[in-house]
Amino acid sequence: MKIVVGIKHVPDTESKITIGSDSRSIDEQGIKWIISPFDEYALEAALQIRDARGESEVIAVCAGRGAAQPTLRQALAVGADRAILIEDGRFEKCDGLVRAQALAAVVNAEQAELVLLGKCGVGTDETQTGPMLAELLDWPHASAVCRFEMTDAGFTAERDVEGGREIQEGRMPAVVSCEKGLNEPRYASLKGIMQAKKKPLEVKTPQDIGIEEASLAEPMLVWESLELPPSRAGGVLIEGGPEEAASKLAQLLRDEAKVI
After folding, report:
1. Which residues span the domain enclosing 157?
2. Which of 145, 121, 14 is nearest to 62 (CA)?
3. What kind and span of H or E run contains 242?
4. In a domain, 211, yes or no
5. Domain count of the fold of the chain
6. Cα–Cα dist 76/68, whole Å
7. Do 165 and 252 reside in the same domain of the chain?
8. Cα(11)–Cα(76) distance, rounded to whole angstroms?
C-alpha cells in the first residue's frame, strides 16, 4: 500500500514575521522553515498505518521551491520512506487548485491508495487543497479529521462539529485532511536523521508531471499586498479603591468599549 503525504514548506509558527520591501512577501532573513504543523499530524498518521499494517510505503510530496528540500528531509528523518519535490517557487503563491493538480499527478503516477495532508497550510489557511484533490481524483474525502481508522471495508473518520462529533465512513482509496489532536507527532531520532541523508528525494519539474505553464504563470489567486495587523492600543490602569475602580470599569465598558 502506498500512502502519499502532502507536505507544505512554511515559516516556523514561532517566527517573528516582517513584511518584505516589495510589500507582497515576507522578509525571510532569520526565518526558520518547517513542515506545516497540520501536515505533521498527517505524516504521523501515515507512519502509524505503515507500522501497524506492514508492507506499506510512505511518500512525502511537496510542491515548492528548491529550499523545501531540507523540509522534506525532516519528513524522511521522522520516518517517511522517500520524498518527491515538484520544484517551482511559484507554487508558494499559486491557488489551491494548482497544488491539488500537482499532488493528483503524483498520486496517479505512484498509484497510491491513500492521501493524507493537513487540513490547511499555516500562513495561507485556505483549506482548499484537500477537497480539490479529492474531486480531481474522484475519491471520497474526509476533512479536519481528529480520529481515523482503516477498516476491512474502507475507513472510519471522526471530526468535531459544533456541539458534537461527526462520524464518516468511506471506501478506499481516499483523501483525508488531518486536524490537531489526531495524534502526537514523533520527533526525529539521531538514527533517523542519519538515515534521511541516504533516502531517495526525487526532484521533478511541473512539466514532468503535466502541469501547464499557464497555471503557474497566471494563477486564479494573486497576492496584491501583505500587511501586518494594526498595533493594539495600550491598556488602561484603573486606580482607586475596589468600589471606585469597579465604577470606573463599568463606565469604560459602557461608554468606550460599548460592550454593556
Report:
1. 2-217
2. 121
3. helix 242-255
4. yes
5. 2
6. 13
7. no
8. 19
Residue 66 sits at φ, ψ, to 5 deg, of: -60, -25
Contact between 17 and 227 under an 8 Å Cβ cutoff? The reply is no
Closest CA to 119 of 105, 101, 98, 133: 133
Q: Looking at residue 82, what is its pLDDT?
A: 96
Same-domain status, 156 and 200: yes
Same domain, 251 and 131: no
Query: pLDDT tens, 138-178?
Result: 999 999 999 999 888 899 999 998 889 999 999 999 999 99
CB-CB contact of 113 with 171 (8 Å): no
Residue 224 within a domain: no
For residue 52, give the CATH number of its domain: 3.40.50.620
User: Residue 84's beta-bridge partner residues?
Assistant: 61, 202
Say how far apart CA 80 and CA 74 lie, in whole Å: 9
The overall longest dimension of the chain from CA atoms, in Å, is: 73
Residue 135 lies in a domain: yes
Beta-strand relationship, 33-35 and 174-178: unpaired
Query: Is there a single domain that holds both residue 176 and residue 246?
Result: no
The 8 Å CB, 24+ separation contacts for 146-154 are 146/179, 146/180, 146/181, 146/182, 147/182, 148/45, 148/176, 148/178, 148/182, 150/49, 150/53
The identity of residue 3, as a single letter, is I
**3-state DSSP assignment of residue 199:** coil
In a domain, 194, yes or no: yes
Chain segment 78-95, per-residue pLDDT in tens: 999 999 999 998 888 888
